[in-house]
Model the fold of this input.
Amino acid sequence: MRTEIPREELMLSGHLACQGCGGALAMRLALKALGKDTIVVIPACCWTIISGPYPYSALDVPILHTAFETAGAAASGIRAALDIQGNTHTKVLAWAGDGGTFDIGLQSLSGAAERNEDIIYVCYDNEAYMNTGIQRSSATPEKAWTTTTPEKHPKLGPKKNMVQILAGHKAPYVATASVAYPEDLINKIKKAASVFGTKFIHILAPCPPGWRISSEQSIEVARLATETKVFPIYEVFNGEEYRINIEPKQRPVIDYLRTQGRFRHLSSADVEEIQKRVDYEWKRLLQKAMIEPFSA
Amino acid sequence: MRKVLMGNHAASYAAKLSRVQVIAAYPITPQTQIVEELSEICANGELDAKFLKVESEHSAMACCIAASAAGARSFTATSAQGLALMHELLHWAAAARLPVVMVNVNRAMAPGWSIWADQTDSLAQRDTGWIQLYVEDNQEVLDSVIQAYKIAEEVSLPVMVCYDAFFLSHTYEPVDMPDQADVDAFLPSFKPEFKLDTDNPRSFYMLVMPDNYIELRFKIQQAMDRTLHVAADVDRQFGKKFGRSYGICEAILCEDADYVLVTSCSTTSPARIVIRNLRERGLKVGLLKLRLFRPFPGEEVYQHLSGKKKAVVIDRNISFGKGGIFADELRGALANKKDRPIFYSYVTGLGGRDITTEALEEIVLEAIDSPTPESNIIWKGVKI
Done:
């Protein structure tokens, strides 16, 4: 489905994002999808800085900055306050990084999802604590370098599957998206706005300094993540119905990994192990989407 | 209308009478009946509020902060461990200048696990920027929560109303319930100067550089200074309307006293009996009940303690390495004052042990008899 990307800009110039920041582009697109009748909740994350210091704001919508672990709860509080004042039309957008979602904010997100608060929760995932200087989070991919997972002791274990966690809450709408596929991203934010309850969108947002790529590579690398099936683009309805939205190319993970300095220490055995896991996860996703029948 | 209410239900009805719009809470003994009753009140449609049964006290306070920033009158209640979990957000609510009101049922901190009365939980939050009231009986619980909203919304700071676990929370007393119309006249609906508004998009609580931060803190202190007058004034207005007022502190028989017993919360009730008995024996003993703790009413306290020989302070709390917290605050507030009394700081009743009239009488007589305090902290009733 083709989508007209709205011309209206609610993210303004003068923001403080790094060049090529996936998180900045994701916000720009999300607000184009939602429009002015939106309140944004930002816990501690890169966007705490990107939106600008007092007395500036890079967004033309209200922002509530809140503590690191509270995006789900703060968004719930705003929703409740708006509802009790008779305003059911303004959309509440919680906008958190992977640290604030996968790690410290997981509890309040789970609480909000369990209560099925009528909010849109976006995790812009740059796969580490980038704002504090590239420390590992539970969204950091297996074997990646960060400042707390040095090459001699890279990150152990796979990335946490947040989509599955939210699907486990039976959230009405859960999806992945990527800044490399802006039309899909905008469609998903719009779809989220049309559904009642807790919507969760997991957006892959490349971070040039953290991923050790140059800023003009952001979109290319994000696209490779999907083409190599490392980051499939799909959606889950009511925790049950899976739908894959972008058909990946038949490309090996090495095409994705070798673009980034954070993976440069990987041995061919490491790459093979990652390939196996990606293949397995892709097969599991196909089964969930029932594109292929389960074969014994 | 008079009803027989436990302290916790007095808090619930006060929230209802204050027409709170958003409640977010997590259950913890001995606070639970507050939220249970409010759940019933909301479910019955007696109160038009959103009640979020959140997954932690931390989220309860985050909800209240956000709801208040979005223009709704917000309420929560907690105790001890729950309050400690909120600590980060207590700073946030105050520095965000949001008039959230919270009831804290004073309970001892673990370990060892204890659900009984002890004020260390809320006194440990004294530097967060919250206004704190420590109240004596169930009527004062109800009246203080209503007053708290009036104060909070006038000075744009959150208010914590604190009372003792079980001695008040689970004890039934007759309570006069004001008419809703009278409360509405006393406490109009919440109309914040600023709120999250898509027609006037602003960024709230953003990054602040060193060039601006200290000014924000200066303004919080200014608001605290103003609170001393506002709290007294709100209490007077409340008195005119409802016939009950409490002062920011209460001095009983202090004018001609040589010795003043200083108490807070439910300990004040037995202390009232003790000073009457001692007066009958010819001892010039007065009583000072501390009610407003933040901001600390140093000048008013000084007026009552100036020229007295001794002040005997009862603390059901302790700052380890320093001593009883009320005593310490009093010493600090009067440090540069002439004619200040000698302070006798008694730490007793921690973790809910009874502070009886007999124990209080013994403490006062012991302080009168000893020319100087035996130490900065005098422990009473420790079985070691």
Observations:
- The longest strand of chain B covers residues 101-106.
